Structure formats: C-alpha cells, structure tokens
Amino acid sequence: MLGDYPLKGRRASEIAAHIEQGVSSGQLAPGTALPPLRDLATELGVNPNTVAAAYRLLRDRGVIETAGRKGSRILPRPALTPRDQIRVPVPPHARDLSAGNPDPALLPDLAPALAEAARAEPVLYGHPAVDPGLLALARASFEADGLPGGPIAIASGSLDTIERILGTRLRPGDAVAVEDPGWGSLLDLLPAVGLRPAPVRLDDEGPLPDSLAAALAEGARAVVVTSRAQNPTGAALTAARAEALRAVLAEHPGVLLIEDDHGHGMVDQPYHPLAGAGSRHWAVVRSAAKAYGPDLRLSVAVGDEDTIGRVSGRLRLGAGWVSHLLQRTVAELWRTDAAPVARVAAVYRARRDALLGELAARGIEAHGESGLNVWVPVPDETSALAALVQRGWVAAPGARYRIQSPPGIRITTAGLEPADARQLAEDLAAVLGAGGVGSRLV
C-alpha cells in the first residue's frame, strides 16, 4: 500500500507530519491509499483515535481525502504541489502564450488615479472599512445588473474573497461544485482548506445543468460559477443557460452560491445573474485584476446579509481592511475608465476571434467565447505542448485546470495580434495532424 515508506509517530501531529513529509518528497505519490485506521494504529502501537486525529489534520490541510469505507488517499494534486508549478519552460526563441495575463498595453495608466487617491485625508484606525466612493460605484454596478440588494465587502482579489466566503458556511470535508476544466487556483485552494472539489462539466454557455444537478444531489454544499471569461475555456453564461441553472439551484436553497465575475470591465458579453434563484446564502464577486492590472489586489462582493456580514467581520479581526489608497484608486479608475472598457473588450474579442477563425478553417475544435484565453482539446497534452515549443510557441498544459475532463491546452490570446494567429494555427494543425481532431470539451 505504501511501498517502502513505513509510517512513524506516536502522536497525531507526528504521524501527520511524517505522511506530509512523504508527500513533499515524492515518496508518497498522489492517489496512494493510506492504511485503515485500526491497521495503522496496531502497527504503530497507538490508539485508533490518534490515527483518526492525524488523518483529520491531513484532510484539513488538503493533503488527503477521506471517503468513509473507501478509505483515505493522498489527494491527486495535494495543496503541497500547486497547479501553477505545472509549467512549460520558455526557451529564448519561443513566444509565451501560457501566462493568462492581460495585455499591459491595454491596461490604464494608474498614475492619475493614484495621484487623485493620494489627495484624500489619511485613513486612521477607526475609519470605516469601505471607501464611500467605491461603495457607491459598486452598488450602482450590481444594481444595474439586476442583482438583489445586499451589503458589500471589499477584499484582496477574487480568490481571497472566495476563500473567505467558503469559510463562512463550510467545514473540512465538505464538497464544492466547481467547473471542470476550471480555474487552477480555485482547484488548489479547496484541498488546501480541507474541501473537496465536485467537478461539473461545461460548454461554451457555462456549466451544464444536469452535471450541476448531479453534483448537488451527491451532497455538494457550495457551488462556484464563473459568469464570463471562464478560465480556461472562455465560457460565458447565456440568458438561457442562466435560467436553467437557476432552476437547478432553486431545488437546493441551502447551497452556498458564489458567482465569480472577474471578467467585469474587460468583456463585452452581458452579465446574467444566478443570484435570486432562491439561494439563501449567495455572493457575487468582481475584481480589478483583469481590467486594471493584477497588482491591484482588490475585489468587491455583494451578497446576503449573513454571509457578507461574516466575511466583513472576519476581515476586521485579521487584515482589518483593504488599503483605502487602493480602494480610492480603483474607484477613480471605475469613474474615469468607463469609455475605454468597450474598446479593450473589442480588442480582446478580435484577437480571440482571429485565432478561433484560423483554427476553425483548419478543422481544429477550440473554445473562447470571452476573456483572455482559448481552450483547444488535444489527444495528448505532453506531445502537443512539446511539439508547439519546437515551433516557437508555449501554451499552458490543461492539467493545471482539469479534474476529470478530457485533455486540452490553454492559449492566452490577450497579446496575440491577428497577424500571428495564422502561423500559430498552421503550427497547431501540423502538431495535431490530419483534421486537427482532439478530444471534445464535454
């Protein structure tokens, strides 16, 4: 079961640390089954409760998963090995299309907004946590998109907000319905905080209702849905798909609903909310990273009073608040950068469409309804990536984003000029061979 790695320890913390060391060193591979509680307790000469406590520690740290009578196993991708470490080296001759970053040339000049933000009075202890100007703009934005009214919280980016929201309702061991393929950072976060991802299939219009219904029926206590610019596939919720998903969610009013709308401010698809379907606990998260730059670590979230109240209360006990200099800067950008949003979204769309068109002309299936990336299903990721590198292109391996979905590669088109799309498509067609056929998204 464990090969040449005998377990050691007398206390729960010692047993857990020894297993964690084995995972870190690679001696315990992902998927390795751990001994049953009583068997390991007998082997180590300790009480079964001690082993149970060790396994709980490992589960809470995102190292193992427990499934009752099916036993405990090392997680397929434990939190000790984050997905962003799965990278393809970029040789000097190659162009990096793997990072997922916005085009720096399309980001606004921050200097005027920062200067304006710095003119305000200094913020001291006891000051309200949320800048009134940003609060008013965020509230108006949410209301314009038809979201139910609710309090607003400010945190440090989408993932920080999502982690805080999940912490308000869930306990270690709970399952969270997530898109597959989906955002690698979220898929890493869940086991890191002791939660289990429940994969939900998707197409260009977003999560498939039947797949979401199955995950909820199997006990998922929360669901995270990307509204637009889904990473890595570019999926964007349509009105029809949002209606179908709301019908599924209405059957599970106790499930925590989180909508990640990180594409706000840099996409041209309309927003179709899921909130209001009857979920008692919900939140919609929007961040500044893609529209204004990843270093602006700020997000706004609206939701039900209890959920947002818990998030804000916990934030006050830890970080206290997000820098008001950042808050005022984002508010100033929001006020003054409205007109360029349509232009930026049009540029990103033109770059995606150029590559999608060239790929379609060569019979290659690809997906990219919105956002900064195009997802290309492939029969084998390793060979496709290696062959592309030889031709001067570096894409992101689909393994960063997949749980059970078929193989694929992610190509960031944010900085890919249409003139380069033809050569990339020709090279990819040569890599995939006749017909350019890969595995399908769903």
CATH architectural grouping of the largest domain: 3-Layer(aba) Sandwich
State the CATH superfamily name of the largest domain. Type I PLP-dependent aspartate aminotransferase-like (Major domain)
Mean pLDDT, rounded to whole units?
91
Distance between the termini: 34 Å
Instruction: List how many beta strands DSSP finds.
Output: 16
Structural class: alpha/beta
**What is the CA-atom radius of gyration, in angstroms?**
23 Å
The tally of helices reads 15
- Helical fraction: 40-55%
Count of discrete structural domains: 3
CATH topology of the largest domain: Aspartate Aminotransferase, domain 2
How would you write the strand order of the largest sheet?
Answer: 4-12-11-10-9-5-6
How large is the share of residues in beta strands? Answer: 5-15%
Low-confidence stretches: none
The description of the largest β-sheet is: 7 strands, mixed
CATH uppermost class of the largest domain: Alpha Beta
- Shape field: globular
List keywords for this structure.
single chain, 442 residues, Aspartate Aminotransferase, domain 1, Aspartate Aminotransferase, domain 2, seven-stranded mixed beta sheet, three-stranded antiparallel beta sheet, 16 strands, 40% helix, 14% strand
Put the structure in a nutshell:
The chain is 40% helix and 14% strand. With 442 residues, the protein is α/β, with parallel strands linked by helices.
